[in-house]
Predict the 3D structure of the following.
Amino acid sequence: MFNLRRMALTGLAVVAISVGWLVDTVAQEPSAYSSVTIFDHQKVDASFDKALSAGGSMILFRRTTPQGVYRVNTQSRESVRAACPTQGCSHEGFTAVVYVVSGAATLVIGGPAEAAKTEAPDQFGGVPMHSGESHRISKGDVIVVPPNHLHWYKDVQAPFRYLEVQTP
């Protein structure tokens, strides 16, 4: 009887260890895409040129994951045809991270002007903008635009080009 209990306990221990190993293995499986993607400067420049001729925007990269759709767009706001209307552009369902690679513009956060608000930089040093505020942006600046925030660019200094990374 003692040997039967020892055998049963040993069997349960082996099953428990196997389940633990399986859970650990499944948790370490790679995501839906496992390769790094690189676009050299010539492809990026060509995408900016295509964006300008196509009206201002061109998809450089797009990936659908269980978390949502990720996109990288090249944006050329060098012509009237490529500009956002003064009533603003807005993104639903994604946050746009903008990295300016050339030129400059005044970013206007749409809506009626509000009373000036002073607010300290966030924990990473970024300065929040409120509806009705304008900010001059240029090469090297990064802007994070959450979903459903009207914004537009004015006083564009060409070539005003930026990468827009859309994240869920």
